[in-house]
Backbone:
């Protein structure tokens, strides 16, 4: 059967910019955006129009920040969806290209972050698995100093964004995507895990704080019940806007009570394997 025509609304750079400003996005601020292009509806210009609208709303003094994670740069023994044969693991570890901020594509975070990553003037942080990209007046300040041994903790852009007074925009994305909650995991008792990845001198293993988005949706529900969160719509998407610092502080208290994780856990949660043609994450 033929694909039915879209039902609307028609979303453009101009409508996005207007609705972002009406939501409360301020010129000159720093904004960490988690996004779903599909949730916005039919966008004329796709991810390019979305990035243009975000930059329009922030103005020349603002800064746009997105996660550009690269979960594929990980131990193939932990891959799922799909897994790879165990006999391949040594060869994969030996030949996996090391992270290069300029060329390594982001995976699993949507097409808008990948569009930002490749935008003229974009800067990207140094962590080989949990990098961030930034555009705008304070981009260098955001991405510099991301310690390769600290995924989402005190020596990551999240702590910098917190100190800068940045805000989070969930643009059609849910709280499960809210990376700011992970910073709280570094500030409460959390297990450490061995994390394998390709390095400049071959395969390497580092000891890191274990991070997990388990129950983040529940955490987000309580957060917006108890704290001021701006809610609205942009295009067809539900959106939320709130300070990074508020999210981190609330998550510290909530996780310590509702999801204590001091006990030892397996080395890491299963990760997606290489993307196949037709994968919805592409």
Residues:
């Amino acid at each position: 059967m033929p694909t039915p025509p879209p039902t609307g609304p028609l979303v453009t750079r101009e409508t996005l910019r207007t609705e972002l400003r009406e939501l409360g996005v301020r010129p000159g601020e720093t904004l960490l955006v988690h996004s779903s292009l599909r949730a916005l509806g039919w966008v004329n210009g796709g991810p390019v129009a979305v990035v243009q609208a975000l930059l329009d709303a922030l103005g020349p003094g603002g800064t746009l920040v997105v996660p550009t994670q690269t979960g594929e740069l990980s131990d193939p023994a932990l891959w799922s969806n799909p897994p790879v044969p165990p006999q391949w693991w040594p060869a994969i570890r030996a030949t996996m290209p090391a992270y290069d901020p300029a060329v390594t594509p982001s995976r699993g975070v949507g097409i808008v972050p990948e569009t930002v990553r490749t935008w003229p003037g974009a800067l990207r942080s140094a962590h080989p698995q949990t990098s961030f990209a930034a555009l705008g007046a304070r981009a260098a300040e955001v991405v510099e100093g991301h310690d390769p041994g600290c995924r989402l903790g005190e020596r990551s852009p999240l702590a910098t964004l917190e100190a800068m007074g940045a805000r989070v925009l969930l643009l059609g994305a849910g709280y499960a995507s809210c990376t700011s909650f992970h910073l709280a995991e570094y500030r409460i008792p959390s297990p450490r895990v061995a994390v394998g990845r390709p390095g400049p001198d071959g395969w390497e293993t580092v000891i890191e704080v274990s991070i997990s988005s388990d129950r983040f949706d529940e955490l987000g529900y309580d957060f917006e019940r108890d704290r001021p969160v701006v809610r609205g719509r942009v295009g067809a998407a539900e959106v939320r806007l709130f300070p990074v610092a508020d999210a981190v502080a609330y998550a510290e208290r909530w996780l310590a009570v509702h999801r204590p994780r001091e006990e030892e856990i397996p080395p890491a949660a299963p990760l997606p394997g290489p993307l196949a043609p037709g994968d919805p994450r592409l």
